[in-house]
Amino acid sequence: MSPASSRPGRACIIGAGSSGIIAAQVLDAAGVPFDCFEMGSEVGGNWRYDNDNGVSSAYRSLHINTSRQAMEYAAYPMPESLPDYPSHWQIAAYFDDFVDHFGLREKITFRTEVVKVAPADGGGYDVTVRRIGKRSEPETRHYEHVLVANGHHWDPRWPEPSFPGAETFPGVQQHAHYYRTPDELAGKRVVVLGIGNSATDIAVESSRVAKETYLAMRRGAHIVPKFMFGMPTDHLTDSPLARGPLFLQKLGMAAMLRIAQGRVTDYGLPEPDHKVLEAHPTVSDDLLTRLGHGDITVKPNIDRFEGSKVFFTDGSAVEADVVVYCTGYKVSFPFLGDDVVHAEDNHVDLYRRVVSPDHPGLYFIGLIQPIGAVMPLAEEQAHWVAEVLTGRVELPPPAEMRAQIASYDEALRKRYVASKRHTIQVDAHKYRAELRRERKEHARR
Ligand SMILES: NC(=O)C1=CN([C@@H]2O[C@H](COP(=O)(O)OP(=O)(O)OC[C@H]3O[C@@H](n4cnc5c(N)ncnc54)[C@H](OP(=O)(O)O)[C@@H]3O)[C@@H](O)[C@H]2O)C=CC1
């Protein structure tokens, strides 16, 4: 921690996706010297379609599922000319404008991979970077602080364990991470597994071109439309009136969904085993219609494969050509040793989802899955970290941080369906308020 008077030491930002670029802007404005390394040749991370960083999961038809107003950075609002739910192209263009507006592009080192971050003797971190596509030796530099912003929706999680007989399936098994366009599904018999946002988007696309589309899931979900009563749904849920206690939010949301679209079981989906807001929202305006058109058939979980036949847990079976596993992502940090930060089953012990209590100087930006959008929350996190780095705010002792981590984990267990997809959840408003309180309460006098 830097004392209030000292000049902050140099920071390393890993990644120039939506979290890395806002961290760069905030550190720059706060006068914290930094380097930012990005594997691709452009900013935007997951929102850059066909990103040459090789790890974007964006498919061609991807539009964000939170509204423009919910996703924009406070420091740089999105143009009002953009639609309510911009496409990945529009979002990537916004990120381009953002870095150019703040003069950040030349401060980012592109086509450079961070291969190792190791705690250094005497404090700080030794960061080893490698130029991509150039025959040059990896280079190690020392930083006082490291801000990890490498994203958490790029390392595909395949079903664990794989389904019996999967290895005998003669068709294509792929993960949503690799899905780009529906052409590859045209005329095929397609099974899509999962009921998160990737599964619904891909099943909907498949249903327009495939011969048959089956949507298989191990539990039901509440489907939240993108628009209700003529406005983006998060305009309703973001209103101060909708920010009461959680039980009221749940009641209000359940009532709105019932009025707007009835029960999910009316469309052939299974009854969810949880209440609304007890799982990460599945947002789709199209799924229920495609089900109502009979172009998607709902199935329970996959049980096993026998040759080209996919058996489901209710004993039914279909012949399939393609199975798309929309089974989520792993939180991973390939450059951090397990002895530094371990992300087993997507659990990472971080104080307020940002600070490693065991490794001073190591921060994580955007390692959250909000009900809401990540970008403005990553911005709040960056402001907090900048204040810590410049000595305006101090961190509590490690024991206090660990106690907060334990209570966060406990709250998650009580609130959400037990799943590896619910280990880094936050409610946007509550979390923003929590970070602001943290900055106020721990401000150095
Ligand atoms: N338009 C947008 O903005 C989009 C945003 N996203 C976001 O990307 C993130 C990742 O979404 P997504 O890719 O859908 O992944 P998620 O982790 O959200 O969903 C994974 C789904 O797969 C199921 N699943 C996982 N493992 C298995 C298994 N072994 N057998 C059967 N089912 C399994 C999960 O069930 P269970 O709940 O039981 O674990 C869940 O239904 C989310 O934050 C999402 O909101 C994704 C697509 C589009």
Automatic annotation (TrEMBL):
Tell me the domain of life: Bacteria
Q: State its Enzyme Commission number(s).
A: 1.6.3.1
* Catalytic reaction list: (2E)-geranial + NADPH + O2 + H(+) = (1E)-2,6-dimethylhepta-1,5-dien-1-yl formate + NADP(+) + H2O; hexan-3-one + NADPH + O2 + H(+) = propyl propanoate + NADP(+) + H2O; NADPH + O2 + H(+) = H2O2 + NADP(+); sulcatone + NADPH + O2 + H(+) = 4-methylpent-3-en-1-yl acetate + NADP(+) + H2O
Q: Gene3D superfamilies annotated for this entry?
A: FAD/NAD(P)-binding domain
Q: Where in the cell is it found?
A: Microsome membrane
Instruction: Keywords in alphabetical order, please.
Output: Endoplasmic reticulum, FAD, Flavoprotein, Lipid metabolism, Membrane, Methylation, Microsome, Monooxygenase, NADP, Oxidoreductase, Phosphoprotein, Transmembrane, Transmembrane helix
- Check the record and name the Pfam families matching this protein: FMO-like (PF00743)
Its EC top class is oxidoreductase
Task: Give TM regions.
Answer: none
Matching entries from InterPro entries are given as: FAD/NAD-bd_sf, Flavin_mOase, Flavin_mOase-like, Flavin_mOase_5, FMO-like
Any coiled-coil regions, as ranges: none
Molecular functions per Gene Ontology? monooxygenase activity
Q: Does the keyword Phosphoprotein apply?
A: yes
Which PANTHER family does its entry note? DIMETHYLANILINE MONOOXYGENASE
> What the protein does?
Acts as a Baeyer-Villiger monooxygenase on a broad range of substrates. Catalyzes the insertion of an oxygen atom into a carbon-carbon bond adjacent to a carbonyl, which converts ketones to esters. Active on diverse carbonyl compounds, whereas soft nucleophiles are mostly non- or poorly reactive. In contrast with other forms of FMO it is non- or poorly active on 'classical' substrates such as drugs, pesticides, and dietary components containing soft nucleophilic heteroatoms. Able to oxidize drug molecules bearing a carbonyl group on an aliphatic chain, such as nabumetone and pentoxifylline.
The Swiss-Prot or TrEMBL record describes its family as follows:
Belongs to the FMO family. Belongs to the FAD-binding monooxygenase family.
The protein's name? Flavin-containing monooxygenase 5
Species of provenance: Nocardioides taihuensis
